[in-house]
Design brief:
Layout (H helix, E strand, L loop, with lengths): L2 H15 L19 H15 L15 H15 L8
Helix pairs in contact: 1-2, 1-3
């Protein structure tokens, strides 16, 4: 897990939920943070904008996943959007 990515995700979720950042962790669930489905979608959009990625449609909708699942989705999307290193011939 990339600590910078995790921290940025938790910061965004804290902002969206209106909670103090120190009260959430990777084991928190969106539903436990009183983030409804619309707010979850808004959170995913904000994460996509922050990281310049597109998160798979199966994340952020139900609120039953932990924030670690959301972090994993961001990291997975980042890995798939990373450009391969160009080599010169």
């Amino acid at each position: 897990m990339n600590a910078d990515v995790a921290s940025r995700v938790l910061d965004i979720v804290a902002k969206q939920s209106g909670r103090d950042r120190s009260t959430i962790s990777t084991t928190s669930m969106l539903k436990d943070l009183d983030i409804d489905s619309l707010e979850a979608i808004e959170t995913v959009f904000e994460l996509e904008e922050e990281f310049g990625i597109q998160i798979a449609d199966d994340h952020g909708g139900t609120g039953t996943e932990t924030l670690q699942c959301l972090i994993d989705a961001v990291e997975n999307a980042l890995a798939h959007t990373a450009k391969p290193t160009e080599t010169t011939a």
